[in-house]
């Protein structure tokens, strides 16, 4: 398994500082995002970012994201095409597709199939892989990996679509199967509050992985590794409390978290 750093974990850093932190942390790659509230790469070209990542010996494992991908429209098709173009210039290995998470489209797997069927030729033309990320929230329109696999197989997309195994969403969904062969990315984060309810739990509760983690990140990673997964394991912490920490303290906690993950990832 290869450790990676998702830009959401340190959103105040610019892209260059994120690369440098990933290098110091012993990561082999990063994930960039287009949802941090500012222009992607702050006006620099994707080619420049790619060159600097490669100079540091880092891979760009993914570029996120197209949200509500299963709310298909001409505008959504253009959004996917645009993200693919940037990903190609970035030499990113994948793009990410996030389902509706607004309480609509529940149990509508056909909408997922429609979107994947339309996205598939775009991926084939670009020789690109898309990661579908089920969200375990009760309001999510695609909660489980099993449902995502059913939709992918229905459109003949097994060669172009992989899954994100997010330890937080795996925990929330109650899904027990891991589908290591379908997994193209693992996202890790930690929840430590012993009193938090699964009804109210949200991204804001997700910090870095620590010893008192409630999600059993280490157990999940062990199961994935035993099943043959050897891809990226990317830290994706959303908690505002972590984001607001002084840079040196946040970096120290991040390094400690990566050290903990290495006890399993190797």
Automatic annotation (TrEMBL):
It comes from the Bacteria. Residues 21-253 form the Xylose isomerase-like TIM barrel domain. Signal peptide: none annotated. PANTHER family: BLL3656 PROTEIN, HYDROXYPYRUVATE ISOMERASE. This is Xylose isomerase-like TIM barrel domain-containing protein. It comes from Sagittula stellata (strain ATCC 700073 / DSM 11524 / E-37).
């Amino acid at each position: 398994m290869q450790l990676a750093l998702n830009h959401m974990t340190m959103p105040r850093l610019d892209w260059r500082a994120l690369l440098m932190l990933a290098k110091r942390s012993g990561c082999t790659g990063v994930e960039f995002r287009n949802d941090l509230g500012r222009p992607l790469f702050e006006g620099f070209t994707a080619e420049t970012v790619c060159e600097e990542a490669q100079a540091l010996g880092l891979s760009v494992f993914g570029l996120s994201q197209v949200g509500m991908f299963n709310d298909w429209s001409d505008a959504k098709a253009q959004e996917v095409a645009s993200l693919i173009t940037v990903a190609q210039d970035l030499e990113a290995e994948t793009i990410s597709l996030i389902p509706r998470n607004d309480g609509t489209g529940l149990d509508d797997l056909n909408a997922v199939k429609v979107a994947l069927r339309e996205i598939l030729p775009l991926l084939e033309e670009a020789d690109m892989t898309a990661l579908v990320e089920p969200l375990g929230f009760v309001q999510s329109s695609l909660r489980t990996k099993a449902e995502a696999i059913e939709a992918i197989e229905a459109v003949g997309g097994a060669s172009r679509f992989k899954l994100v195994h997010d330890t937080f969403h795996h925990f929330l969904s109650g899904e027990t199967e891991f589908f290591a062969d379908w997994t193209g990315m693992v996202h890790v984060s930690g929840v430590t509050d012993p009193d938090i309810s699964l009804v109210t739990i949200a991204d804001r509760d997700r910090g870095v992985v620590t010893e008192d983690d409630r999600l059993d990140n280490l157990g999940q990673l062990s199961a994935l590794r035993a099943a043959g997964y050897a891809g990226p394991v990317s830290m994706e912490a959303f908690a505002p409390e972590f984001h607001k920490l002084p840079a040196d303290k946040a970096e120290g906690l991040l390094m400690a978290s990566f050290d903990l993950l290495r006890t399993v990832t190797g």
